[in-house]
Amino acid sequence: MQDISSLKRNAWMEVNLAAIRHNVRTIKSLMAPTCKLMAIVKADAYGHGAGVCARAMASAGAQQFGVATVQEALELRQSGIAQPIVLLSEPPVETIDLLLENDIMPGVTSSEFVLAYGECAIAHDMVGKYHLALDTGMTRIGIPAEDAVEFRRLVDFHRGIVCAGTYTHFATADTIGDWDFRRQVQRFTDAIRALHEAKLYPGIVHCDNTAATMLYPDIQFDMCRVGIALYGIHPAESTVELAELEPAMSIRARITRVANPRIGDGVSYGMTYRVNTPYMQIATIPIGYADGLSRSLSGEMDVLVHGRRARQVGRICMDQCMFAYPLRSMTSSTMAPELAVGDVVTIMGSDKDEYISADEIGQLRHTIAYEVLCNFSARLERVYVS
Ligand SMILES: *Cc1c(COP(=O)(O)O)cnc(C)c1O
């Protein structure tokens, strides 16, 4: 594992594996003991690095893994993950050989795919396991829930396939008491019951994302698919009081330059910011929008340095940005210590008593913490701490 001294850049992502293990155990404590935890590690574990994180999650009790692409599934196998892996949607038919060779279960949404999968399995003298996706109202993927029995009757003749799971996904699980959520649960429950009545075994039944797992412990079926909470972030305001989660990702950089400009001097492209007070230092850090620090944050976000907030100023560049550090505050005549090249700056995470969350950055960008986390994986090297 990488430590800070071996980094090739003065900007990096820190991933706290102890926090991830804590979050896995916390979520499991909210689940029925017989209910399995599928850790969702798509998009390189929401930007945290899938291989290392999946191993930490497995050690803390995650039983299965969910990913979005075949490439992501292969990376998990290459990093030694032996647990069941489910692709959350149907991949191209061309990938079927890879799925069978690497024991990756596809999410299935068409009879054409699952029959091609079965043919290929027979050619390899295997049986291909799959999970059937049902659309219960989100209108994203899956066959209409009402057609589950008909679908299974159509494909079950094939001896090269077996249904290892049946699932759906909720659109509004984070809104307490939502009518659409209850309707999705009803359609899913009806479909599962119909399968049982037709003696068509549904396999492992699963529907809950983080929000549903936390807010509706009474509808957990056989497995919960939890993503965001394992990285220490709440999916919505509504879950905050239900568990103590520990954010795993921090983003840090070292100052590469400190300037003492004159009043009126401009900063960065377009000079949208001009120094307007005496004793203002402008420091440069080598992290920019190509690292996931969106340009739309320019002039809006804070960073932490020496345990204090400082405002990022001027446009965020592709590889660098600047922040302003007043040596003398409005309220006090004492001078703050000057900044120095090499000082550590926190873009996300904690520094002494101050904290900048993924939610704070997401709000400034008019997006959600999920996207903020994923974006930071673009180019930053990761340092894992355990
Ligand atoms: C991403 C995803 C999840 C996990 O959602 P979180 O809100 O991060 O828990 C679960 N199921 C499916 C199908 C998903 O695409």
TrEMBL record:
Highest taxon in the source lineage: Bacteria
Binding site for substrate: R140, M318
Listed PROSITE patterns: ALANINE_RACEMASE (PS00395)
Cofactors named for this entry: pyridoxal 5'-phosphate
N6-(pyridoxal phosphate)lysine: residues bearing it: K42
Keyword flag Glycoprotein: no
GO molecular function: alanine racemase activity
Catalysed reactions listed for this entry: L-alanine = D-alanine
Stretches assigned to the Alanine racemase C-terminal domain: 248-385
Entry keywords, A to Z: Isomerase, Pyridoxal phosphate
Pfam families reported in the protein's UniProt record: Ala_racemase_C (PF00842), Ala_racemase_N (PF01168)
Matching CDD domains: PLPDE_III_AR (cd00430)
Active site: K42, Y269
The enzyme's E.C. designation: 5.1.1.1
Pathway the protein acts in: Amino-acid biosynthesis; D-alanine biosynthesis; D-alanine from L-alanine: step 1/1
Catalytic class of the enzyme: isomerase
InterPro entries: Ala_racemase, Ala_racemase/Decarboxylase_C, Ala_racemase_C, Ala_racemase_N, Ala_racemase_pyridoxalP-BS, PLP-binding_barrel
Protein task: Catalyzes the interconversion of L-alanine and D-alanine. May also act on other amino acids.
Cross-referenced NCBIfam families: alr (TIGR00492)
UniProt similarity note: Belongs to the alanine racemase family.
HAMAP family for this protein: Ala_racemase
Protein name: Alanine racemase
Annotated source species: Fannyhessea vaginae PB189-T1-4
Source lineage: Bacteria, Bacillati, Actinomycetota, Coriobacteriia, Coriobacteriales
